[in-house]
Every structure is written in C-alpha cells, then in structure tokens.
Amino acid sequence: DDEDLNLLDSEGGPDERPAPVILPVLAIVGRPNVGKSTLVNRIIGRREAVVEDKPGVTRDRVSYRAEWAGRDFTLVDTGGWEVDVAGMDAKVAEQAEIAIEEADAVIFVVDATVGPTDTDEQVVKLLRRSGKPVVLAANKVDSPTLEAEAAVLWGLGLGEPIGVSALHGRGTGDLLEAAMNVLPRESAHGTARPDGPRRVALVGRPNVGKSSLLNKVAGSSRVVVDETAGTTRDPVDELIELRGIPWLFVDTAGIRRRVHQTKGADFYASLRTQAAIEKSEVAVVLVDSSGPLTEQDVRVIQQVVDAGRALVIAYNKWDLMDEDRRRYLERSIERDLVQIQWAPRVNLSALTGWHADRLVPALDTALASWETRIPTGKLNSFLGELVSAHPHPVRGGKQPRILFATQVSSRPPRFVIFASGFLEPQYRRYIERKLRETFGFTGTPIEISVRVRE
Ligand code: GDP
Ligand code: GDP
C-alpha cells in the first residue's frame, strides 16, 4: 500500500501524515506567584489558563498543545497547584520534580523582583540532577531598568537569565527562541520501538484499583511499600511478564508512589495520566464498577481517544457487584460511552484476581486493530458497495460523490476520503460505523477526514 500512497502524492493527493510522533514536552516550573500561568497564557495566546492573584486556583487542564515559530510541542503548566503554607517548599519541590521528570526541556521561572529564594535553589538542584535542558526566565522585568535584577540570577548557575515580562510580553520571544533551541523535535519518551515490548499505560482516577491491579498482574511476590515521595526512586517503567510475554507498563512510579493522598492530588494525577498515555501504545482505563461512571472516568477515556491510542476499559471491583450496582453502571455506560462502544470491556477484580487473565487478550485485540492497514483496493470496493446501498442524501439539488479513499496511516488508522462535495457529519458517522462493522477496529480510535475536490 506504500505504492498507493506514492501514486496519490504524485497526483497531488494528500500529504501522507507521518507516523504519529510524540510531541516534545516543555514544562514551566517555578514557585507559586512567579508568573507561570501568565507566561503560559502568553505562549498559547489564549486566556485558557486561569490566573488569579491568590495561589491555590484549581484547574483541570494541565497541558496544552502549543506552537511557536512553526514548532509544535506540549506545554505543561504547573501553575495553580494547591500549596498549603506549611511545608510549602517541600511541596513545590515535589511538584517540580514530577513536571521535570515528564519534560523534555524546562523553563524555570524566577521572580526577578524578589530574587532567588531557598525554594528556587531547591528546584535548581532538581534541575541539575535531571540533566534536562533548562532555560532560566527572570520574570516581572517589566522595564529595562529592572534588567539589573535579572542579572542577579546568574548566581543560580543556570546560565543566562532571560529578562521577561510575562504580563506585558516583553522578552518572551527571546525566551521561547532559547527554549526551542534546547527542546528536542520529538519527545524522548515517545520513540517507538517496534521490536521492543508493548507499552501499556494503566490509568484511571484515584482509588479505582490501579496499584492493586499492577500488583496482581506483576505477581504476588512483589511487595510494595508505601513510601514517602522522593525518598526512593522507583523505576518509571516496569517490565511485567504476562502469559510469557513481556509488557512494558509505563510510568508506574506514579501509581506506586500513591501521590493521590496528598494535596493537589488531582493535579498530579492528571499530569501523570497525560504523560503515561502519551508514552503508551495501548491504555487500560480502570474504572470502579461499584458505582456509576464518573465525569472523571469519561474524561480519562476521552484523553486516550484524543491521543489516538488503543483502548481497553477494565471494570474493576467486580467482586462487589450486585443487581443495583449493575443497573447503575450499565445505565451510565449507555449514557456516557455510546461513542466508544468499540472499546473492549473486561470485568475483573484486582482484589481476587478474577478475570485478570482476560486483560492480555483484550490488549492484543486492541493493538492488532490499532495497527491494521486496509489495502486501498479493498477499502474502495467497500466504499463502492456502501455508497450504492446507501448514497449520500441529495441537498439543494446536489449529491456529493465519493471519489476515492485511502488509509494514510495506522497506529491508529487514519483515512482520507476524497469527495466531490462536503459530507454531512451524519454520513461520516455512517461510514465510520460501517468501517467498524466490516473491518473490526475493536479497541482503536479511527480518524476519517474528507477532502473536497472540485
Ligand atoms: P503562578 O502562580 O506562577 O502561575 O503565577 P501567576 O501567573 O498566577 O502570576 C502571579 C501574579 O504575578 C499575578 O498577579 C500576575 O498578574 C503577576 N505577574 C505575572 N507576570 C508578571 C509580570 O511579568 N510582571 C508583573 N508586574 N506581574 C506579573
Ligand atoms: P489506585 O489509587 O487506583 O492505585 O487504587 P488502589 O489500588 O490503591 O485501590 C484503592 C482501594 O480499592 C484499596 O483499598 C483497594 O484495596 C481497593 N480495591 C482495589 N481493587 C479492588 C477490587 O477489585 N475489589 C475490591 N473490593 N476492592 C478493591
């Protein structure tokens, strides 16, 4: 089918979408109130990140798709973390540590009008240890007279402090340019290793049973001790043999570390979740079946779909199931997951181990679908039949015709359809439904785009 693609290109067809690269991650790190969120707003050019004068603003989005000078990257905003006054330094450091771990490069923001504080020094140590590239932003340099304050920050030993005013935009272009110079083109987390073990993310909201399931599948010999964050460094990814085949469970440190019991927990959880999904090929979203689906469950599932990863939904705590619970659960699934009926479902109990052996077959199915390629000939004869059985409705005397279709990539499958006119959303959904009926795609999102050719 590569030949088909070349043919298309020479005909002026679609640019082939390259295999999905994992965008590099740029994290903005610093103490509360130094202006991180203001800087994020400045970079993404929106007012999406909430900025308030008081610390402790909660928000549910922590990373943004951003672009600068033609470069795409993921921007991680660590502003708005909940920080209580007692033990603040430790918390800032802990939060910074997670963000740094997930990042490919860091912008470290310091308030130039305050100068370096002990907390800043602590973060500098973490940055050094991480070996990640760092750009030092001396913020609140609202005018040239304040540049002298910025120069004091040379003392942090991170190289040249770049004086900026996140609020007014002063110097932010230079800052971003410096960041782009050190940010790799592709995330270090993301390079696909086609011959290596499959990468699995085990995600879900706190307390659904992720660490229990991880322990169960890793074998009872593995004992996990509750540990204070930061005292021991867990390996981030864990190789676990299931049915004789090694699987790489990514980012298990976040699960093992049980950070969700601390303040600002939701924030860590979503940062971890996003990072784990990005690194994975397939995600198992664990939900607690002893209650109905929650908004947060649905959000995590949607995150997986949006990231274009294969998906398995595991309904845990099935040992607690009774008739009432089952009714609530099924009702919420019907209501909230109608669009995602394609995801394989495994009912299990991490506590007793019941049905834990069904996880691997579900992962296999989802991954096989994710990598499916449909030859162009087969795809077009399928579409031919579909169109003759159910043509696009005539609108205003016109009827768009489907000219040609091709699958431009897999992991996940992406299709481009050429048509003589705009295809209605309803008709696109019909095509997707039929594609799934005919070719399976159990466990993978698929993407269909339509190009109109006169
Ligand atoms: P964060 O906690 O690090 O995310 O900090 P915020 O972005 O919420 O900013 C904290 C406060 O500093 C807000 O009142 C901002 O308006 C203010 N601020 C941020 N950047 C600048 C700047 O460049 N100059 C000045 N004068 N104030 C700023
Ligand atoms: P995590 O926050 O997602 O890692 O969740 P944990 O694995 O820490 O589990 C949260 C709580 O749910 C713990 O008290 C577990 O013992 C309990 N739990 C986990 N799996 C099951 C299960 O299958 N059945 C029951 N009844 N409880 C479970």
TrEMBL record:
- Would I find Repeat among this entry's keywords? yes
The keyword Lyase belongs to this UniProt entry's keyword annotation: no
GO MF term set: GTP binding; ribosome binding
Entries under CDD domains matching the protein: EngA1, EngA2
Per UniProt, GTP 1 binds at: 30-37, 77-81, 139-142
Q: Which SMART domains match?
A: AAA
The protein's job, in short, is: GTPase that plays an essential role in the late steps of ribosome biogenesis.
* Protein name (record): GTPase Der
Q: Which organism is it from?
A: Rarobacter faecitabidus
Please name the taxonomic classification of the source: Bacteria, Bacillati, Actinomycetota, Actinomycetes, Micrococcales
Task: Write the gene name.
Answer: der
